[in-house]
Amino acid sequence: MNVSRIPGRTPDELDPDERAVYDAVAGGPRAAGPQLFPITDDDGALRGPFGAMLLQPALGDALQRLGTAVRYRGILTDRCRELVILKVAAHWESGFEQRAHELIAARAGFTEAELRTLAEGGVPALDDPAEAAVERAADLLLAGGRLPDETYGELREALSEAELFEIATVVGYYATLALQMRLFAVD
Predict the structure, then answer these.
(1) Rounded (5°) CA angle 88-71-164
(2) What is the pLDDT along the chain (187 residues), one digit of tens a residue?
(3) What pTM was estimated for this model as a whole?
(4) Does domain 78-183 bear CATH number 1.20.1290.10?
(5) In whole angstroms, what is the distance from residue 65 CA to residue 45 CA?
(6) Are 30 and 71 in contact (CB under 8 A)?
(7) Are 176 and 56 in contact (CB under 8 A)?
(8) Residue 142: enclosing H or E segment and its boundaries?
(9) Intervals of CATH 1.20.1290.10 along the chain
(10) Angle at the Cα of 142 (from 78 to 180), degrees rounded to 5?
């Protein structure tokens, strides 16, 4: 296992701008609900992608606000959102995202078999046509993002333009986190 290239910093080690980002992450909606996975380590340093957000507080704050909107203010069902996130995690082999969001996905009703299939980069059997369309859209976006008009039309039969916009945003946000965690060897 890699050791992070950036040290975890406790709240008392942060300047005011960094502390504002820390407080938004550690005291926001991510911390308000059931704690399926800890946001901070035993010393109080942010875990996973959140510690990297402190490196550039203006961007880190914008990114954490986008993450909050994606997780708590979107229109996708919890199952659809977690399906997209787990597709991104498998694509980028992002262990933190995979572990954290498997817990959330299990609460949203995913079975162990579905989670295993997603972790292996496969397509689970999805009975819900909207979920199947979400999975297909995520796959297409992860494979390069080019959708022929016919494919777009097929997706639009099952999903609204707003849902497609949200799927693309979720893919982009979690891909950004996965790349940052790779760059800084965060697991």
Answers:
(1) 60
(2) 456 899 899 999 999 999 999 999 999 887 776 667 788 999 999 998 999 999 999 999 999 999 999 999 999 999 999 999 999 999 999 999 999 999 999 999 999 999 999 999 999 999 999 999 999 999 999 999 888 899 999 999 999 999 999 999 999 999 999 999 999 998 7
(3) 0.93
(4) yes
(5) 19
(6) yes
(7) no
(8) helix 129-142
(9) 78-183
(10) 85
Residue 136: both structure tokens together: 């297909």
Separation CA 138–CA 170 (nearest Å):
9
Question: What tokens were used for 127?
Answer: 């009975």
Please report where in the chains the tokens 């639009």 appear, as a residue.
Answer: 156
User: Residues 6 or more apart from 68 whose CB is under 8 A from it?
Assistant: 28, 29, 30
- Exposure on the CB side of residue 75, measured as CA atoms within 13 A: 11
What are the strands, taking DSSP E only, across 23-148?
Answer: none
